[in-house]
Task: structure prediction
Amino acid sequence: MSSVMSTYARVDIAFERGEGPYLFTADGRRYLDFGSGIAVTTLGHCHPHLVAALTAQAEKLWHTSNLYRIPGQERLAERLCSASFADKAFFCNSGAEALEGTIKTVRRYQFVNGRPERTRVVVFDGAFHGRTLGTLAAGANEKYREGFQPVVQGFDRATFGDLDSVQAAVGPETAAILVEPIQGDAAGVRVAPQGFLTGLREIADANGLLLAFDEVQSGIGRSGRFLAHEWDGVRPDVVALAKGLGGGFPIGAVLATEAAAAGMVPGTHGSTFGGNPLAAACANAILDIVLEPAFLKQVVTTGETLRARLDAVAAAHPEVLIGVRGRGLMIGLQCKIPNGTLVEALRKHGLLAVVAADNVVRFLPPLIIDDVQIDESVAALDAACRDSAP
Ligand SMILES: *Cc1c(COP(=O)(O)O)cnc(C)c1O
Result:
């Protein structure tokens, strides 16, 4: 451990294997994983369909680079586009890269449409877009930028949920608006208020801007729709995906309309690993299951059931929990006690959860949980609240 750069404050637990929604340590302790590796293991751990897809591909071909055609990647792009607003997909390996690709795409769109001065992107308070230099500048957290000056230029910040602030941030150099339909890390699970995303669409249209959504965390079924913005009936121009797309295999994507992607011609962008045969096989296997119409319906039902049960626990422990928010299986528990204390208490009761800003504990369970895991999680939360009540 000591040779690993100290960028994480890690919990002193190592897992040996995973099975569905559960993780096991070498000494046999079992945990219910409601963090999902931060919204990554969409179908839980070692889902048989994913294991089969990955091993079958591993025996045939791992990597060729994007110098050549990759049939699995082409199929993945086609399926992502037919399931969404998009006409084109670019593949990378992570969320931050998907956002970098998104920012490049919106700048390039303005450039090839004769408006090269339009380079700036309106971003929001409570935003998290990743840890690269560009995405740090787009994100809201000042602390993440400390010691990493100079800050990348080209971002103007507006207030999440406040269309007037967006209008005020738009100027002659604005290229696009970039927002998470459900803010995750830096806002502690904040769903865009009703009408906000459609309002952004109107502002974008009125000003010749592109509308880009960061669905790295909210996408791939987590909200109960394939992409979370579908709840709002709004059509974006560009969307960044990653986390849940590979179910644990690293892959990210930039989805775009034909018009938005028109400038992304050979030589403008690239990635050595992006969408390689192994990654594409995993993401295709995820889509096999998530795009089944019954699957997303089940996520909605499961989310409603879990939410109602969590609301009841919160009501029973007002000294620990302020309230529950979120959509589908992207849930935030706002705490009265320090969120880290509750996460630790939950872990003692065998449940893994993740902290977020605004003193929130996030529940991001795999989308395959059923009533058994709902019962277990509710019992763990109830017990953890008892333990940590002041
Ligand atoms: C996690 C996350 C990112 C960054 O993804 P990485 O894979 O860690 O680079 C970007 N945007 C959102 C909304 C995220 O949740």
Summary: The chain has 13 helices and 17 strands. The chain has a mean pLDDT of 97. The CA atoms of residues 79 and 287 lie 8 Å apart. The two ends are 34 Å apart (CA to CA).
